[in-house]
Amino acid sequence: METCVICDQEQDSKLYEKYNICTSCADIMEDVMGEYFVRTIWHSEPKEMSGYFKYLGNTTKYISDYKKLTQKSLNHIKNVSRRTADAIENTDTPSKQRYFERMQEVLDWLGKCPEFYHYYFKDYYICPTCGASIFEKYSKDEVGDWLVVSCSDCGAAIKKYFSPKIV
Ligand SMILES: [Zn+2]
Ligand SMILES: [Zn+2]
């Protein structure tokens, strides 16, 4: 039986093909990554390109989009870590306490394994259906308890997150 690389407990199911991460840690990982994903693409301005820049853009755009998705990862870990430490100190609710303690474990692991960001986002920076860049064609909708990130060109859903908790 495999064990979870983050918490050392038994691996029950495998959400990420390349990594042994248990369901409880993976749920928190999705919260951390969901916030990062939405913040990163939200803050990027869609840009119009023309002529030579358009040509250049077509060949280099995807590489730089992919970089954009991962370059702020260390900052993100630091920011969420700080908020998590505050939350652990300021909460009296045991279930919340456990949530934030596990979040801290997930963040510690991410800090040691930043390549996980590359693995995680490899399929999300371009639309799988029409090939548009997620930084230019992006829409975000709340559907019940889900936040759905989709392509504004063709409407394909790129990724959905269960009620992301902004810590
Ligand atoms: Zn785990
Ligand atoms: Zn599309």
Task: Give the helices and strands, then pairings.
Layout: H1 23-42, H2 51-71, H3 73-90, H4 94-112, H5 115-121, E1 139-143, E2 146-150, E3 157-162
Antiparallel strand pairs: 1-2, 2-3
The chain binds zinc ion (2 copies).
What does this structure look like?
- With 167 residues, this protein is mainly α.
- The chain has one domain.
- Helix content is 51%, strand content 10%.
- The chain has five helices and three strands; from the N terminus they run H-H-H-H-H-E-E-E.
- It has helices at 23-42, 51-71, 73-90, 94-112, 115-121; strands at residues 139-143, 146-150, 157-162.
- A three-stranded antiparallel β-sheet has the order 1-2-3, with helices on one face.
- A hairpin with a 2-residue loop joins strand 1 (139-143) and strand 2.
- Helix 1 (23-42) crosses helix 4 (94-112) and helix 3 packs antiparallel against helix 4 (94-112).
- The protein is globular and about 45 Å long.
- The two termini are 33 Å apart.
- The protein binds zinc ion (ZN) (2 copies).
- The site of one zinc ion has 8 residues, from helix 1.
